[in-house]
Write a sequence for this structure.
C-alpha cells in the first residue's frame, strides 16, 4: 500500500538539475511530472525531454494548480523561496526547499506559520546532515558513546571563492557560506545556540573586502546545553573542499575527517603522498543529495514530519545574523538580540 | 554523431540485475531492449516491467535474432558463457561477458577465435580493474612513479564462505575465488605469469575439505618481467571483505588499502575505533560495475578494442589451473605446462 | 674547542627530576655539579647519590656562589622563578627556567631587564616547541610550503583534572593550562597576538566551578599579521592527552595529529580498533624535554641567544591575562589593555 | 634484594657500541666492567674512558676470567659467536648473543648443549621481538583477540643494499637479511615451521647476482599448526626501511604498519604528503635494543629463562637454510630435510 508521489520541481539551475536527476534515478515510488523554470531555452527543453519528464513550464503556478501533484521541490533563487513555500502550502503540497529558507526572520516565521496552518510538511535542504559521515557522527553522539557533548568543532573551507559579483549579493560569508555550519553545529550539539562570537579577516582577495565581506572567519558558539562550538571558514582552501567535524564529550571524542579521494598511498624517496581530497561539494556531497530526498519521501510515506524543518531553517538564519552583528560590533551577540 | 547501442542482457540473476540497473540508470546513449532468463517468474516479470524494458524472454535466441541489437551482456551461468559468446559473435553483436569466460582452455581459445573471425569486441567482466582505487594504483604504476615493478602483493579475503553445495561445483578456490586476483596481478605487474606456486589449508570449515577444496590459500607468482607476486586468500574474514593491493618497485611503492566505510574515528577510554570495512562485493565494488560498462560502451563508440578481453580471460584460467596443479603436486608449476 | 658547562639544578620535584635525568643521560659535554631543593629527604639523597651527582643542598645560593657553575636550570615552584632568575643572572650564570616565567607582568619585565643587563641567556621551558611533530609543523610553515598563515588551530586537552586544591592556587585554566597553547599559537603563527576572546564552562566537575575556575575553554586569537587562531582546552579527555595543531594558509594546510601509541590496527567483527593515544605529558612529550636542553646548551656553546626567551615568557602571560579578562567581561580584550 | 649484575661486552663495533651505550644509560642495576674488542685504537679507548668504563681489553678471556662478571654481551663477528658462548658458559656467565647464533647447525646444537650443561641463560638478540609495535602485535594475538592464526604476513625491506664485498660473505639474503623474518614469523604464528618455499630475483643490482646472491625474495611458510606464512624481502626500498607484519586469524586480523617519522600531514594543491618513514634500523628499532637488554637482565634477576633463546637461534637458521635450498632447487623444502 505504498503511496505514489507526484512531484513538481521549481527551478532547474545547477542544484535543481541535481535534484531532478536524483528523483529520476534514485528515488523509487515517485513520479516527476512538472519542471518549472523562469529561463526556458532549447538546451533545457531537450534535457527535460530526454529524461522523459512530461511537462516543462516557465510558470510555477502550473505546479500549484495541478491537483495530482502532492510534493514540490523548490530549488529556485533564495528570494523566491518564501513565496513558493507559501503558495505550495496553500495548494496543500508537501515541500522540500533548498537552504536558506529566506534571509528575513519575520518572513521565515510567517512562512513556517502558513505551512503549519495548511498542515503540510516542510523540509529544508541542509544536505550535509545526510552525508554518511556526518550522519554517522550524529548517530555516535546520540548513542551516548561519547557522553554529553562539551565541544563541537567544525571546519568548513571552500576550494575557491565565488565571483566578486556573487559575493556582493551573497548576504555575506556568515549567511552564504557558514549557514551549513550553523545548522551542523546545532545538529551535532543537539541544542540551540544562545550566543555567538565571530571574527574574520580579508586574507585571500582584497576585492572581497571592498565588496563589504570577509573571506576568512572563525566563530565561537555557546549552546543552551552549555556546550561550546568553534567553527572556522575560509573561502579558499587550495587543496580542496575541507569538510570536517568533531565532537568532544564527557566520555570520548568522535571525529569525521575529510573523505579521501581514494585509498592509495605512494611511497617515494621524497615523501609519502596521497591524492587530494574531493574538490568541491558536488564530489563531496553527491550522495547526501540523494539521501535527503529519500528521507523526505520516506517521511511523507510514513506521515512523519521531516527534519531539518522550517524551525531549523529559522535558527540557522538567526545564528548567521548574530554572527554578522558580532563581527560588526566586535562583541559576543545573543540569539535573543536577533530573534525579537 | 554518437552511436546509439541497443542492448540485450542474457541472465537476470544477482549479477545480471546489477548490470540491468546500471544500464538503465548510469549508461547514457544506450537502449536496453531485451532481457533473457531461463527462469521467468512473476517477480522478474514485474521487475522488468517497472524498469520499462520492452521485452523479457526465456530464449536468448531472441536477442541474437534481433537485428537492432548490437551489444550483448552475458551474465548467465558460467557453463553457458562460451556458447552464448559464440552465438552473439556469429550474430555480429559486441559482447560483454561475466568472468570467468569458461573453465576449459580449449573451449576458451575456440571462443576467442570466433569473436576474432566475426570481428566483434569481447570484454570480460573483471570489474576490480574498474574500482577507482585499483585503477588509480594501475595509473600510478604506469606513470612510472614507482619505477619497474619488483613485487606485487594482493590480499583478497571474502567475509564468509559460500554454501558447501556451491563449493562442490565451484571448481575450487583457485578458479572460483582467486580468479580476480590472477587477473589483478597481471594487470598490476603489466606482465604475464610464467610460474605459480600455491599452498593452502582447510582452516575455516572441515566440510570445505571434505568437499575437496581448501579455504585458505597463498600463492607466489613469477612474472615474465621477473617481478614476483604474492597473493593470499581466505574464504572467511570475519571483519569484512578485505581487498588490498600493493606494488613495490625500483623507485617506490604504492598501496591500495581497504576502502573505509566512513571517515569516523571514535576515541574512548578503551581504544580508538573505526567502523568496519564494507561487508562484501556489492558494497565494495558497486561503482566498478558501472565503470566497466561505461568503459565497454565507450570503446564500442570509439571503435577501440575493450580490455580486459578474451586473452585476459584465458590467462586467468591458465594461472588458476597451474595454481591448482601446484597445490596438488606441491611444487611450482609453469603456465606452459597448462597451456599446451 | 668545545666548552664544558657546569650545571646546577634548582628544584628536584617531578619536572626537576626529569631535567636531571636528561642532563645525565642525554646531554653530552655538560657536568651536573649541584642539585638544590628545599625539601631534602633520604629518598632524594639516595637518588642523587646513585646518579653520581657531587652535591645536594637545600640552599640555592650554593649554586649561585659556585664560580665553576655557568648554567642553571630552574625547576622550582613558579613563585620562586623570578627571584632565582635574577640571582642567577647577577651571578653571571645562563638560565633555563621552567614555564611560566612568573605571573606578574611587571616582575617579568624587571627580571628580563636584569638578564639583559647582566648579559646572560634566558630560555623558558616551553617544551612543546621541541616536540618533533610540532617542530616539524613549524619548519613546514617557515619553509613557505603552506604560504601565509590564515588560521592556527590548537587542541589541547588533559586526560584528567588536577586536584581541586591545586586548581585553587593554579591561577586559572588560562594561565595554568592554556599557557602552552598561547606560546604554541605565537610560535606557529609567527606573529604576536593583538586581541583575545575567550569563553568557557564548567562541564566536568562542579567543584572546579566552586573553586572559581572553569574546566572547558575555547579562545579566538587575532594576530598582528591578521591571522586568526582558535584554541580549545579541556581538563578531561578520558581517551588520553589530546595534543593537536593545524595551520591553514594561502597555499595549503599542515596538520599535526596525536602521536599514536603504536602502529597496530585490530580488525574484528565489531570494528577496527587502535590503542589509545599516550596518557599524559610524560609519555607524550618525553623527548621534547631532552631536545630543549640539547638546544639550550647548543646555543650557549655557539653564543646564540636561545629561544623561547623571556619575551616569549612575557607574551604568553599577557595573552593568558587577556583571556581571563575576556572570559570575565564576556568581550574580546586587546593585549594592549593588559600590557600597560 | 635486587642482584647487581657485573657485565662484560665482547665486540665494540656498530652494534656493540649501541649495547654499551644502552647498558650505561638505560639499564638500571647493572655495572659494565670490561669491554673487549680485537681492534683497539685511540678513538675507541677515548670513547670507553669517557663513558667511565673501568677496563678495555683486546682479549675476551679477561672477561671470562673475571669472577665478578656474571653476564656477557656478545656482539663480535658471527663466526666468533659459538666459541664465545661456549667459553662464557664454561665460565658460568649468562649470555646475551647477537643474531645469528651461528650458521652451522651442528655447531649451534653443540653450543646450546653446553649452555644447558653449564646451566647458564642464553638469549639471542632478535631485537625486533622487542619493538613495541611487534610486541603489541604478539600480545594481541596471544590474547586470543584474532582467534587462531591462519596467515602470517611479513614485509621486510632494507633501504639500500650493503656493499658487494659484504654480500659475498653474507651467507646470502635468506640468512643475512631474512633471518629476522624467520624468527618473527615463528614468534607471531606461535608455531614451528614445517616447510618453506622461496623464490627470488636479481632486480636491483646485477652485481649482487654475480656475487651469487639475489636481492629480492619471497617465501611461503607452512607452519606445524597449519597456518601459512608469506614474507617478502628487498634489499632496496628507496622510500626507507619498510617493516610491517600482519596476522590474519579466525576472529580477526591485526596489522602493524610502518612507524611514521612524525604525525604531520601537508595538504597542498598537488597532493597530501607525509614525511618518509625512518630510514634504517637504528632509527626504526632504537628502543628495541634497550628493551631486549632490560628483558634479559629482568629474566636473570627473576631466574627465568630469557627468550628468544638458543633454540630460537637454531630454528631461524634451519628455516634460512631450507629457504636457500628451496630457491636453489625450485621446490618446497621441509625443515626436516635440513635438521638431520
Amino acid at each position: 500500500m505504498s503511496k505514489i508521489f507526484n512531484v513538481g520541481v521549481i527551478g532547474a539551475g545547477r542544484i535543481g538539475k541535481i535534484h531532478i536527476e536524483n528523483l529520476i534515478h534514485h528515488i523509487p515510488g515517485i513520479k516527476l511530472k512538472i519542471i518549472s523554470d523562469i529561463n526556458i531555452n532549447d538546451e533545457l527543453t531537450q534535457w527535460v525531454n530526454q529524461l522523459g519528464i512530461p511537462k516543462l513550464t516557465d510558470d510555477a503556478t502550473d505546479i500549484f494548480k495541478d491537483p495530482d501533484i502532492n510534493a514540490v521541490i523548490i530549488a529556485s533563487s533564495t528570494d523566491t523561496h518564501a513565496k513558493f513555500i507559501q503558495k505550495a502550502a496553500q495548494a496543500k503540497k508537501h515541500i522540500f526547499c533548498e537552504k536558506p529558507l529566506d534571509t528575513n526572520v519575520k518572513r521565515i516565521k510567517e512562512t513556517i506559520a502558513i505551512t503549519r496552518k495548511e498542515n503540510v510538511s516542510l523540509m529544508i535542504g541542509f544536505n550535509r546532515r545526510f552525508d554518511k559521515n556526518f550522519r554517522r557522527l550524529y548517530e555516535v553522539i546520540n548513542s551516548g558513546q561519547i557522553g554529553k557533548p562539551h565541544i563541537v568543532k567544525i571546519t568548513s573551507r571552500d576550494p575557491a571563492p565565488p565571483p566578486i559579483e556573487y559575493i556582493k549579493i551573497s548576504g555575506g560569508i556568515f549567511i552564504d557560506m557558514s549557514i551549513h555550519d550553523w545548522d551542523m553545529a546545532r545538529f551535532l550539539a543537539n541544542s540551540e545556540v544562545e550566543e555567538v562570537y565571530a571574527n574574520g579577516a580579508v586574507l585571500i582577495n582584497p576585492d572581497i573586502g571592498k565588496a563589504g565581506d570577509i573571506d576568512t572567519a572563525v566563530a565561537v558558539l555557546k549552546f543552551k546545553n552549555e556546550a561550546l562550538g568553534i567553527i572556522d571558514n575560509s573561502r579558499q582552501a587550495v587543496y580542496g573542499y575541507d569538510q570536517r567535524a568533531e565532537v568532544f564529550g564527557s566520555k570520548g571524542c568522535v571525529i569525521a575527517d575529510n573523505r579521501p579521494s581514494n585509498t592509495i598511498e605512494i611511497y617515494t624517496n621524497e615523501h609519502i603522498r596521497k591524492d587530494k581530497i574531493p574538490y568541491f561539494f558536488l564530489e563531496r556531497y553527491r550522495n547526501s543529495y540523494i539521501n535527503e530526498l529519500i528521507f523526505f519521501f520516506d517521511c511523507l510515506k510514513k506521515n512523519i514530519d521531516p527534519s531539518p524543518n522550517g524551525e531549523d531553517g529559522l535558527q540557522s538564519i538567526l545564528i548567521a545574523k548574530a554572527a554578522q552583528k558580532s563581527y560588526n560590533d566586535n562583541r559576543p551577540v545573543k540569539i535573543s538580540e536577533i530573534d525579537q
